[in-house]
C-alpha cells in the first residue's frame, strides 16, 4: 500500500517508510504534520523481540502509530506481556506491552 508524502508516493518498504518508522519509534510522535488521532501507517519493517531468556524472535512491523504497532509474528510464538522491540538492522529499541494477539498478528503499545 502507498501513502503520499509531500505529493510523492511512499511505498511501505521504501527508505522513506523505514525512516518514518524510525522517527516515530524514537520520538513517539508522527514525523509528519498529521493531525488525526494516532494515524496508522502501513509499513514492512524487519524487527526483533528480545525475550526474557535471552532468545531473539524475529518479526515484522506491519503498521505503526504514535501509540503502538501491529506486528507479524510466528503463530506458535509465545509473547510476554512486555518486551523490548528492536528495529533491524539499526537496533533502535522501544519497550512495548502486548495488547492483543490473533494468529500471526500482535498489537503492541509503546511504553
Automatic annotation (TrEMBL):
Top-rank lineage group of the source organism: Bacteria
Cited InterPro entries: PilZ_domain
All residue ranges annotated as the PilZ domain in the record: 34-110
Protein name (database record): PilZ domain-containing protein
Organism of this sequence: Chelatococcus albus
Amino acid at each position: 500500500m502507498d501513502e503520499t508524502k509531500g505529493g510523492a508516493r511512499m511505498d511501505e518498504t521504501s527508505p522513506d517508510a523505514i525512516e518514518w518508522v524510525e522517527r516515530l519509534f524514537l520520538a513517539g510522535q508522527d514525523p509528519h504534520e498529521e493531525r488525526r488521532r494516532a494515524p496508522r501507517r502501513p509499513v514492512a519493517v524487519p524487527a526483533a523481540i528480545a525475550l526474557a531468556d535471552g532468545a531473539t524472535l524475529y518479526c515484522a512491523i506491519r503498521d505503526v502509530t504514535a501509540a503502538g504497532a501491529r506486528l507479524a509474528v510466528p503463530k506458535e510464538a509465545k509473547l510476554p506481556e512486555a518486551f523490548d522491540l528492536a528495529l533491524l538492522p539499526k537496533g533502535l529499541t522501544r519497550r512495548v506491552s502486548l495488547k492483543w494477539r490473533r494468529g500471526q498478528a500482535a498489537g503492541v503499545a509503546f511504553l
